[in-house]
Amino acid sequence: MRNPAISILLIVKNALPILTGSLDSLKNQTCKDFEVVVVDGASTDGTLGVLQQATSGLPLEIVSEPDRNLADGFAKGLRRAKGSIVGMLCADERYYPDTLERMAEWFEAEPDAVMCGGKVDFIDKRDTVIGSDLTAPFNLPAHLACELVPSNLSSFFNRPLIGRDFYFNAAVPTCPDYEYWARLGFRFPRSAFKRYDVSVAQAYRTRDSMSFRAESFTQFCRDKLAHLNDLLAKGYVKDDAEALRRRSSAGIHMWAAEQLNSIEPGHPDILAHCAEAARYDKSYERITRFIESIGKVRYDPATGIIRRNTLGPRAAAVAQFEWDKPPRNWRGATILSEQPLTVQTANAPWGYSLRLSIPEENAARNLNGGQYWVRLDLEVIEGKVGVSLFAPDQSLKGEQIFNKADGRATALIPIPSGANPVLIRSGGQPSSVMRLYRAELLCDPDRDSGTVAAIDLDQ
Q1: What does each C-alpha distance from 397 to 18, 257, 287, 426, 457 come to in angstroms?
Q2: Using CA atoms, how far apart are residues 384 and 227, in angstroms rounded to an integer?
Q3: Please, what is the Cα angle at 177 between 176 and 180, to 5 degrees?
Q4: Rg (CA), the chain
Q5: Which pLDDT value is given to residue 208?
Q6: What is the rounded distance in angstroms from the CA atom of residue 7 to the CA atom of residue 80?
Q7: Domain boundaries of the chain, sorted by first residue
Q8: Angle subtended at Cα 365 by Cα 360 and Cα 371, rounded to the nearest 5 degrees
Q9: Residues whose CB falls within 8 Å of the CB of residue 227, separated by 6 or more in sequence, listed in order
Q10: CATH of the structural domain 316-444, one choice from 1.10.340.30, 2.60.120.430, 3.40.50.1100, 2.60.120.620
């Protein structure tokens, strides 16, 4: 049998009923010059029977035997691929009908490309597209730090050009693609990786996929770090290897924190991964950026310590905030009542509306040590209101949004000193109304309150 133009690896185990979608997508390809190498991990749910039935309409080569892990399954498939172009598919993934035809055309136009790929569309259980992802152009340092995570599903590889590096390292249970892409990145220039803004595949974004289960990320981090350290031990990096290891290790943990936050916001491992990232590289700007985006925690890049926004038992009020009349250019912002202070926000969705400051700021700043806090006792009567620090560069820090459904609530925002004013503005809804019952500056002498512990990968 002559070698086909394209080989597709299909890795499955107990994959019913979602496997039928993958098989149908292969049957419907407009390009027919391909083979499908199926690696089945000794399924017990009827998957093997469905695959055997599919051989009447698809060129399947089926290997069914126990796998050590997912990486082992992919490694077996890569060894058996005969096509010049190779793609990788799992049971919860599928191609569009013209995907293989499009790949053949791309590689014909780019014969020196090590990879050609497009973007992936995410679907829910009703097969409705709920989002898309186009991987940024390949960049090795960004890949090693998981700032860029290439999509295997939407990528196809030039097997003859890759040659000796066309394999997966199955010695580590998961994330073999991390090590595989890294090896390609060390060997080939960025220009050899081609990515097009065209949808070529679909993937389920549900808990049926290991990549979208929160409990998987401790294992993912452990294995990516093992791959990284193995690459460094083999001498792929000649200069500044330790600096690359620290930054990449921090990046791996920040990737886990970011992914967990998108899958299960509030998961306790999110901040634990951030704390572990800081142990590797506390100056990594990605940590600060992420901490600021999620709020309710604070990060000190000088020490690498992350703290939850909680008050210690010795916290006490040291000053009261006073309000300034809204200036005329804050259109629509007005004081409706002074007892309790009731403000109507500006008539823009995010319009500035009220400024609070501390008259005794010099005395407050001279207090020794401790952590300062703004504490506001408030209630939104209509719409939504944002409360934040107003930094010297006129940017907003630590903004919290409150709405009518919150009832009477407390805004608690950490600040570096007693000198920071507070800004109240519309929280996305113009002409909202808020009552402010109390506005005070607190000082907590215990700066270690709420310290976040780093994640333990040995658990």
Answers
A1: 46, 21, 16, 15, 33
A2: 47
A3: 90
A4: 28
A5: 52
A6: 9
A7: 6-206, 213-308, 316-444
A8: 120
A9: 169, 172, 175, 176, 178, 179, 182
A10: 2.60.120.430
Task: Tell me if residue 169 falls in helix, strand or coil.
Answer: coil
Give the side-chain half-sphere CA count within 13 A for 71: 18
Phi, psi values for residue 336, rounded to 5°: -85, -30
Provide the CATH number for the domain formed by 6-206 in this structure.
3.90.550.10
Q: Average pLDDT per run of 10 along the chain, which is 459 residues long?
A: 82 91 96 95 92 93 86 88 94 95 96 97 90 93 96 95 93 93 96 97 72 83 96 92 96 96 89 96 95 83 88 85 92 95 96 89 56 92 94 84 94 74 95 96 78 86
Cα(22)–Cα(32) distance, integer angstroms = 16
pTM, whole model, 2 decimals?
Answer: 0.78
Please give the C-alpha separations between residue 371 and each of 9, 72, 288, 289, 410, in angstroms, as whole numbers: 56, 51, 18, 21, 18
Decide if 41 contacts 13 (C-beta within 8 A).
yes
Task: Return all residues near 121 (Cβ < 8 A) that are at least 6 apart.
Answer: 129, 131, 132, 199, 201, 202, 203
Q: CA distances (Å), 363 to each of 43, 69, 359, 417, in order? A: 71, 63, 9, 11
- What is the DSSP secondary structure assignment for residue 347, as one 8-state letter? S
Instruction: In whole angstroms, give the CA distance from residue 385 to residue 343.
Output: 10
Name the β-bridge partners of 248: none
3 state SS of 303: coil
Report the phi/psi class of residue 127: left, alpha or beta, with left for phi > 0 and alpha for psi in -120 to 50.
left
The pLDDT value given to residue 420: 76
Q: Could you tell me which residues are beta bridge partners of residue 299?
A: 306
